[in-house]
Amino acid sequence: MNKKIGNLFKGDKGIWTVFFFLCLISIIEVFSASSTLSYKSQNFMGPFIYHVGTIAFGLLVIIVVLNIPCRYFKLAMPVLLFLSYATLLCVLLFGESINGANRVIQLPGFTFQPSEMAKGAMVLCAAQILSAMQNEDGSGADPKAMKYVMRLTVPMVLLIGLENLSTAMLLFAVIFIMMFLARVPMKQLGKLVGIILIAGAAIFAVGSLVSMGEENEAEQGQTAVQEKKEEGFVGKIFHRFGTWRNRLVNHTAKPEDPKDYSVRDNFQVAHSNFAIASSGIIGKGPGNSVERDYLPQAFSDFIFSIIIEEMGLIGAIAVVFLYIVLLFRAARIAGRCENNFPAFLVMGLALLLVAQAAINMMVAVGIGPVTGQPLPLVSKGGTSTLVSCAYIGAILSVSRSAKRTDTKTVSMA
Q1: Mean pLDDT of the chain
Q2: Neighbours of 106 (CB within 10 A)
């Protein structure tokens, strides 16, 4: 019996341990933080059962993916890229709007978020290009490698960024780190940073002008003109810019007098701070959160605040430690790989998970502006949870072949 279970949970035991602990925390905290969903649906156990079912299906996804040899991931890359581009275009044109942004496609029984699949597809593509274009003398990547990676990355980032800027920035940052790890010439990376800064400043300037013009028209009561602008090409591109600017301004413009701070204008951040401030070292205990009834996304974007409130500083450190272990285990697996492709793939997927977790936690504790990034493998979610499980499965698949290679090397020695 134990042997059968061992054969089922193959791969790096450290990755499996991190996964199971994160899932355990997720089940406890989502159950606690879903009080608002339970009240709205008048079903106390409904959100909890749905989340447990999603994690169980995610576990099945991991087991399936880890049994796929790493070399077959290359064959899936063109299909995943095509599906990513197609679904991202569909979500822009026909997607369902959530909080003012078209991010999901409504399918029978669940919603699908194409950007989650697109992130993994782009990391897979970048890993394949960077590994194929390594110089034979071991000096790093060919100078042309960045050109090919950027030709696929930039359109993907733009499609995602129109509705989900934080996800686009996360993906671009991970691809940039992958190119750094692949030893793309530093001169090229420096030029890329310069281009990004100039382009970002230009987009910010144009977006500010468009957003300020629309706000002035709204104040003057010119609703017809505003609707016409929003239906235009420029309006569609920059329709989210006002939200991004306001979030950045609210994060950076702190009032000198605490009495001037508006809880109403900073509702999510304020109640997140209330949750953290009332936590203490050991917290209030699982299920005893108060702020879960006030935070609109307590079970998703701000679940780390609820974890701190209920589990205290100890719980927060434990969660951070699990993601650090995930990154270090992935680095160890990558270091044992004989070929560059699996090594780049493992590091890219691990960086996606850990960087997203870092963004979520930074927002929760007030270090970064509000974004819509869930906490991987912890927040309640459908597409996000299943895709994160697919990433874990791919890392475990590589760990199996890397372990065999490492064992073979030791026995030959």
Answers
A1: 82
A2: 11
Could you tell me which of 331, 316, 288 has the C-alpha nearest to residue 375? Answer: 316
**Distance, CA of 269 to CA of 249 (rounded, Å):** 13
Supply the angle between the helices 383-412 and 303-336 in degrees, to the nearest 10: 30
Please, which residues bridge with residue 104 across strands?
96
d(CA 355, CA 344): 16
pLDDT at 104: 75
- Would you call 138 helix, strand, or coil by DSSP? coil
353 pLDDT above the threshold of 60 = yes
pLDDT at res. 329: 96
Dist. CA 125–CA 117, nearest whole Å: 12
**Phi, psi at 398, each rounded to 5°:** -65, -40
**Residues 7, 8, 12: CA angle, nearest 5 degrees:** 80
Tokens of 335: 């270091």
3-state SS, 75-116, equals HHHHHHHHHHHHHHHHHHHHCEEECCEEEEEEECCEEECHHH
Strand ranges for 17-58 from DSSP E: none
Question: Which tokens is 209 given?
Answer: 């002008």
Is pTM beyond 0.90? Reply is no
Cα–Cα nearest to 308, from 294, 292, 324, 327? 292
* Strand arrangement of the beta sheet that strand 110-112 belongs to: 96-98, 101-107, 110-112
Per-residue pLDDT of 205-231, as tens digits, reads: 766 665 555 555 544 554 444 444 444
Closest CA to 303 of 356, 249, 254: 356
Residue 100 and residue 171 in contact, taking contact as beta carbons nearer than 8 Å:
no
